[in-house]
Amino acid sequence: MPQTTIYSAPPRSPLVPIPGVATHEVARLFGRSAALAGVSLQVERGRMVALLGPNGAGKTTLLRILATSLRPTYGSALVDGIDVAERPELVRRRVAYLSHAAGLYDDLTAAENLRFAAVMLGCSDPADAAASALAAVGLAADADRRVRGLSAGMRRRLALGRLLLARPALLLLDEPYAALDADGIALVDRLIGRWRDDGATVLVASHQAERVTGAADGWARLAGGLLVEVGGAGVSVPAVEPASAPSGTGVPAAGTSR
Amino acid sequence: MRADLAIAWAIARKDALSEVRGRQAVGSTLFFAALVLLLFGFALGPDSRRLAEAAPGLLWLAIVFGGLLTVARLHQLETEDGALDELARYPIERRAIYVGKAVAGGAAMLVLGAVLLPVGAILYGLDLVAAGLALPLTLLLGAIGFAAAGTFYAGVTVRMRAREVMLPLLMLPVVAPLLLAGVKATGAALAGDPFGELAAWLQLLFAFDLVMLVAGAAGYGYLLEE
C-alpha cells in the first residue's frame, strides 16, 4: 500500500486539522520568467476562497499546479495534506478542475463526452451518471448533438457537467462565469452551493472580484505571480519559515507568460 | 488490471469514433496512401516482374506515410480544446492511456493495410491468395509495432510547435528494424517463402512489438507531465 505523504511543516498538533490546500513558497517558471514567484497560502477544508487578480497574476498557474497539470519549479503544494508533485495520482482522486479550455472532443456528442469522462472517473454506471449530469446543467435536450455544433456557453455548461460526475474534495474553478449567460451564471452559483453543501473546498479564480467575493468565505489577491493580500475567513498565510530557493537559481521578476 | 483495460478500451473507442466521424481526415489518408502506390506503379512501368519485386517496399512505404498521419492525428485530437490536459488529470494509470491510443492507432493501420493490399494487388499484379495467412500476420505485427512506436513518439512531439516535422524525424530511425522486417516478410510471403526466411522476419517483428509496447507503456506517463 503506498504511503500518503502528509504535510508536516510546521509541526502540528494532532488536533489541528489538515488544511484543504496548503502551498509553501510555490513557484513556477516558464523559461526565465516566473508565472508564480513563491506563494504561501493555506485554505481550510470546506471553505470557498476567491483567487483575485488581473490577467497574468498567476491564478491559473496556481490552480493548474493544484490540479497536477503543472509541476511546481520550487516549493510545495498540498491538497488535503498530499503533495501534488510527489503523489499526483492520489491528488487527482480528490480534485476537479474547470479550466479555461473545455477539454471536450468535438466529434463526439455531449452525452458521449460525459460518458467517456464517467468511465475515466470510475463511475459504476457511466450512462446514468452522464444523463444525470447533462440534466443538471440543462443540456438533456442536446445530449445527442456533437460538441462541434454547440455554442461556447453550452460547451462551458458541458464542462461544468463533467465536474458533477465525481464528488471531489477540492473544486478548482478558473473563470467559471466566462461565456455564460444569466441562466448559466445562476447555474454556476447553484453548483458551487451544492459542492459546498457536500463539504468540498472551493477555489474560484476570477478577475471579477465583485461577482465571486460575495459568495466566498475569504479571498486572496495575486499580482505578478506573488500573493499580495488575503482576507476574510478560511484563508491565511501559513506562519512557516520560507523554503529557501537553491542559491544561484536567480528566480527572475514575476512575469506574465504562461 | 481489469479497470486499466476498460479505460484503454474506452480511449480506443473514443479515438476510433472521432476518427471515423472526421471523415475528411480518414479519406485523405487513404487517398494519399493509395496515390503513393499508384504513382510508383506508373513510374515503374508495365514490367510485371519489376513491379512484383518493388511491391513489398512500396506497400510499406504507403503504410508508413498513412500511419504517420494517423498516429499524429490521434494525438492532435487531444490538443484541440485542451483535451490532453483533461485526459492527464483523470485518476487513471498512464499506461492505460498509452494502450488505448496504441490500440486505436493499430486498428486504423490495419484498416489502412486492408485497403492498400487489394489496391497493391491490382496495381502490381500480386497474388494475395497464394501468400496465405502470412501476409495478414505480417500486416498485424507491423501495425502493432508501428502503432506502439507511433503512439509514444506522437506523445513526445505533441506539445512541440513543429510536431509534424519532428514526429517522422524522431520515429523513423527507431522503426527501421520494423520496416526492414515488414518488407522482407511481405516479400517472402508473396513469393511463397522460397528461402524459408519468413519465420525469422516474423519473429523479429514480434520482438520489436514486445519491446516497443513495454518501453512505450513505461515511458508514456512522463510525456504527459508539463
Structure description:
The complex is a heterodimer of chains A (258) and B (226). Helices cover 26% and strands 25% of the residues of chain A. Chain A has 258 residues and is an alpha/beta fold. The radius of gyration of chain A is 18 Å and the shape is globular. Chain B is mainly alpha-helical and 226 residues long. Chain B contains 10 helices and no strands. The model of chain B has no long low-confidence stretch (mean pLDDT 90). The A-B interface holds A 67-71, 89, 92-93, 95, 97, 99-108, 112, 116-117, 119-122, 146 and B 3, 6-7, 10, 14, 17-18, 21-22, 77, 80-83, 85-92, 225-226.
Percent strand of chain B equals under 5%
> How many E-type strands of chain B?
0
Q: Number of helical segments of chain B?
A: 10
Shape of chain B: globular
Percentage of residues in helical conformation of chain A: 25-40%
Averaged pLDDT of chain B, please? 90
Continuous helix count of chain A: 7
* Sheet/helix structural class of chain B: mainly alpha
What proportion of the residues of chain B is helical, as a percent range? over 70%
**Which shape of chain A, going by the Cα principal axes?**
globular
Topology of chain A as a string of helices (H) and strands (E): EEEHEEHEHHHEHEHEEE
Record keyword descriptors for this entry:
heterodimer, A: 258 residues, alpha/beta, six-stranded mixed β-sheet, five-stranded antiparallel β-sheet, 11 strands, globular, disordered C terminus, B: 226 residues, mainly alpha, 10 helices, 0% strand
List the helices and strands and how they pair.
The complex is a heterodimer of chains A (258) and B (226).
Chain A: E1 21-30, E2 33-43, E3 48-52, H1 59-66, E4 74-79, E5 82-83, H2 88-92, E6 95-98, H3 110-120, H4 126-136, H5 152-163, E7 170-174, H6 182-197, E8 201-206, H7 209-213, E9 218-223, E10 226-232, E11 235-236
Parallel strand pairs in A: 3-8, 3-9, 6-7, 7-8
Antiparallel strand pairs in A: 1-2, 1-4, 2-11, 4-5, 9-10
Helix pairs in contact in A: 3-4
Chain B: H1 2-21, H2 23-44, H3 48-79, H4 83-89, H5 94-124, H6 128-131, H7 134-157, H8 163-174, H9 176-190, H10 198-223
